[in-house]
Design brief:
Two copies of one chain form a homodimer.
Chain A (H helix, E strand, L loop, with lengths): L2 H18 L4 H12 L4 E2 H8 L3 H13 L3 E5 L6 E5 L3 H26 L10 H29 L2 H11 L2
Antiparallel strand pairs in A: 1-3, 2-3
Helix pairs in contact in A: 1-2, 2-4, 3-4, 5-6
The structure holds a DNA duplex (30 and 30 nucleotides).
Chain lengths: 168, 168
Amino acid sequence: MKLNEAKQQFIQSWGILATQWGINRTMAQVHALLLIAGEPLSTDNIMEELSISRGNANMNVRELMNWQLVDKVIIQGDRKEYFAAEKDIWKVATCIMYQRKKRELDPMIKVLNQLSDVEGDKRNAEIKAFTETIESIKKFAAQAEKTMDVMIKAEENWFWSSFIKLLK
Amino acid sequence: MKLNEAKQQFIQSWGILATQWGINRTMAQVHALLLIAGEPLSTDNIMEELSISRGNANMNVRELMNWQLVDKVIIQGDRKEYFAAEKDIWKVATCIMYQRKKRELDPMIKVLNQLSDVEGDKRNAEIKAFTETIESIKKFAAQAEKTMDVMIKAEENWFWSSFIKLLK
DNA sequence: CTGAACTTTCAAAATATATTGAAACTTATT
DNA sequence: AATAAGTTTCAATATATTTTGAAAGTTCAG
């Protein structure tokens, strides 16, 4: 397979995967492009490679910087801004985990906490069904958050090797 | 907080969380409704509670059955179909994990495998950058898949208690 | 077999999300 | 200070996704 063909294939597939997980397709494609680039790319490079407008390229590259997945790179003697992605995949994964936890899971947990006590007789079947479900989601979420916090702080080798021991 | 208010709040929040993760809002709301229901609900119940059309209710309830998160319940002497959600949250979580892995992650991994060898000089910087990124994503994905497979098969208590040991 | 009860389908309409591109803004150079 | 180079914004437009609802399909009791 030719390099350019492989690059395009990767960019497309990464974009599709992203949309399936609620991430803007173009943002993911810009990310993919930067992940496989040998050197930092300018906004014009990105526009060209993905056939997208300047506005779109600009907005997504900035969003990726918000997510801390991409950094601005200054090249001496060039007024253009260049961009480079974090390439350590463990760091990429834990970064995404951190961001999504913060943006999406934490607010849900906050809501769950507010739902813990409903008015009325706790022996009432409807109230019991509701409360039990909420409580078990809360318990699960607490464990999941703990797990994610460990991963976010962990060093990759330590994490996987510990995890493998778990299986023995 | 009143029960009905709390129910609505939960359904809304669950729906929002779902859209953020690429899941149809209504499907998630139907799921939420069934998770907190004290007894199986009919299509008419669902339409009423969520103010949605029959077509929408029907399609989402069937999609939830595809995902194996909801079962059809037959009530003797009633021609209507009723629906009930799996309430064990560990089972819900591992079921979702299994489904999303199968539908979304496995296809991506298949693509990654096809991208492993590109034509050309392996010392070329562009080719090297591409290959290295793909390889490290593949390695990460392989570990992640292994982890998910363990979780999918695992019993909840065993998993969390083993995981806690890992931290010591 | 017939008709009532219920479920499913799917084209059209509604809604939500993403993209464009030109104007406004910012920054660096002469 | 004027200009050129580059970046950002955002209203208008385009695209993608979801929802509706009525017609077609199915099932079952009498």
